[in-house]
UniProtKB/TrEMBL annotation:
Organism in which the protein naturally occurs: Ruegeria faecimaris
Keyword annotations of the record: Cell inner membrane, Cell membrane, Membrane, Transmembrane, Transmembrane helix, Transport
Name recorded for this polypeptide: Amino acid ABC transporter membrane protein 1, PAAT family
Membrane topology of the entry: Multi-pass membrane protein
SUPFAM superfamilies in UniProt: MetI-like (SSF161098)
Length: 250
């Protein structure tokens, strides 16, 4: 095996990507774990914001709809990098100012919490529009039937609206998840050790830029392929009992 790698000129690259020192493979995997941790947290936080935001836009009062409209417009108009810098630095400064005003010491916010907070707010704006469109796609007869039986609003949302809208929302949510995994790379600018920053540090230390950035791209690709399989299964589950899309196109 070593002879084959040597003949292909890959022996040095494999040494650099080894999991134990002097290889940097362990650092890349640690960065990937941090990226996925933030992506999961931000995606979940964004879903919560998006669900309440969608209901607020559809059923809230004029003030609620206007505020949510401003929120979604600003979050989708301003580039993610600018939003990350604003929310990261301004947000942490406001939290510390509020803590000091109440007589507490400055709060040390971990990079994971800050990353989830920042990306979650950005994700929430997109999730609001995805879920709003999915809710509007639910046949009104199903909701009216549930209300006719006296089903409370929260129970109606849990048993009727959310299950019925999942087949419409899943493709959009899958895209949001992939965006969340890639947006974690932007956190490198604020010094958080996710995959991109670990890759830059490894490449700068060894001057093997092609090797490490190619490895990072392969890791992102693996995450994307695995995510595609998972969301395909979720969409299949959400569409159970519904007419097949292939059959409907004939």
């Amino acid at each position: 095996m070593e002879a084959i790698l040597e003949s292909l000129g890959l022996a040095q690259s494999m040494e650099l990507l080894a999991l134990s020192p002097p290889g940097w493979g362990g650092n890349l995997l640690r960065g990937l774990a941090n990226s996925l941790q933030i992506a999961f947290g931000a995606f979940g936080f964004g879903l919560i914001i998006g669900l309440f935001g969608a209901y607020g836009k559809l059923y809230g009062g004029p003030v609620t709809r206007d505020l949510l409209g401003i929120y979604t417009t600003v979050m989708r108009a301003v580039p993610e990098l600018v939003l990350i810098l604003i929310l990261y630095y301004v947000g942490t400064d406001l939290i510390n100012q509020a803590a000091q005003a109440m007589g507490y010491d400055r709060v040390e916010i971990s990079g994971v919490v800050a990353g989830i907070w920042v990306l979650g707010i950005v994700q929430g704006a997109y999730a609001t529009e995805v879920l709003r469109g999915a809710i509007q796609a639910v046949p009104t007869g199903q909701i009216e039937a549930a209300r006719a039986y006296g089903m409370p609003s929260l129970l109606l949302m849990r048993r009727v609206t959310i299950p019925a809208m999942m087949s419409f929302a899943t493709p959009g949510l899958a895209n949001l998840w992939l965006i969340a995994t890639k947006d974690t790379a932007l956190l490198a600018i604020v010094g958080f050790s996710e995959l991109t920053l670990e890759t830059r540090q490894a490449a700068a230390s060894t001057r093997a830029y092609f090797t490490f950035f190619l490895a990072a791209g392969a890791l992102y690709l693996i995450v994307t392929l695995c995510s595609g399989v998972v969301f395909a299964r979720i969409e299949k589950w959400a569409r159970r009992g519904q007419p097949s899309l292939k059959g409907g196109s004939r």
